[in-house]
Design goal:
Number of strands: 0
Structural class: mainly alpha
Order of helices and strands: HHHHHHHH
Number of domains: 2
Largest sheet: none
Helix content: 55-70%
Number of helices: 8
Shape: rod-shaped
Distance between the termini: 52 Å
């Protein structure tokens, strides 16, 4: 009995060459990273235009945060789609490879382009992107000195604790001693880091220290300490929630970006091979 073997090009898997065109992947990743930076810069400009230091102008903080998260997802999808499409469209044409294998390789090219672009954006473009996003998020204080950008909630709490209605200048015009401020900051940082609250003995000590430095009565000093601790805890909790929200939005942007890059790579690969939408693409005559 005569047995025939199907050796058509659409059913053969080529095992002689690498299945990854790294040059195409690098090209797509570079384009995606550059487009990401462009879109982030555009979004930062829109963000700075949307916020305002006036109470009745600009968008609210919650609207701005949600809009920023949605825009990050849009940026991830758009940039990743372009990178994945280019990675598959610029690859070398595979001959003698099963169509299913071509589909998988194109999908892998899109995913690799997205992964490479993510690494580039996080390492090379990380500082520029952070600067742009930070400028948009802190648009209300964009003109503040660089030193003010490193202020922590405990620094603000220390300022509030040692605030006086009639400040007394230091003798000879010298700056006030930094000892109590540093001690208060260390105490607050350690307390919030370990237990999230300030113990009763530490509260009493802070009240005595505030009373001695500001001239307040012991009762008023204790009230100030309690109020400032509550405000600081609220500020730390708000920062925690903002960081968690930003991380979730970034996760969504990366997941949608990976899917968009893989899908766009399939379309780009089909156009490269002339099999898009089951049609034979004929080159235009010159």
């Amino acid at each position: 009995m005569d047995i025939s073997t199907n050796t058509s090009p659409s059913s053969v898997v080529d095992l002689q060459r690498s299945g990854v065109s790294w040059a195409a992947v690098a090209a797509g990743a570079t384009a995606a990273a550059a487009l990401t930076l462009l879109l982030v810069a555009f979004g930062a400009g829109i963000g700075l235009s949307a916020v305002s230091p006036w109470s009745d102008s600009g968008v609210s903080a919650s609207t701005f945060k949600i809009g920023t998260g949605i825009y990050l997802v849009v940026v991830g999808v758009m940039a990743s789609s372009v990178g994945g499409y280019l990675a598959a469209r610029l690859r070398a044409k595979w001959t003698g490879v099963h169509t299913h294998e071509v589909f998988f390789r194109d999908t892998a090219h899109g995913f690799l382009a997205w992964a490479f672009a993510t690494v580039i954006s996080a390492s090379v473009l990380g500082a520029a992107t952070t600067h742009l996003v930070g400028g948009a998020a802190g648009g209300l204080v964009a003109a503040a000195p660089q030193a003010a950008q490193s202020v922590t909630p405990t620094d603000i709490a220390t300022d509030k604790l040692l605030r006086t209605d009639t400040p007394t200048p230091a003798p000879g015009g010298a700056a006030p001693a930094a000892g109590p401020r540093a001690e208060i900051s260390r105490l607050l940082i350690t307390s919030f880091r370990n237990s999230g609250d300030v113990s009763a003995p530490d509260r009493s000590y802070l009240a005595r220290l505030v009373a001695a430095r500001t001239g307040l009565s012991q009762a008023d000093a204790e009230k100030r300490v309690n109020d400032v601790i509550v405000e600081t805890q609220q500020a730390i909790d708000d920062a925690r929630k903002a960081a968690a929200s930003f991380a979730l939005w970034m996760t969504a942007a990366m997941l949608f970006g990976a899917f968009a890059a893989s899908l766009a790579a399939v379309e780009g690969g089909q156009l490269r091979d002339g099999t898009w939408d089951n049609r034979v693409l004929i080159p235009r005559p010159l």
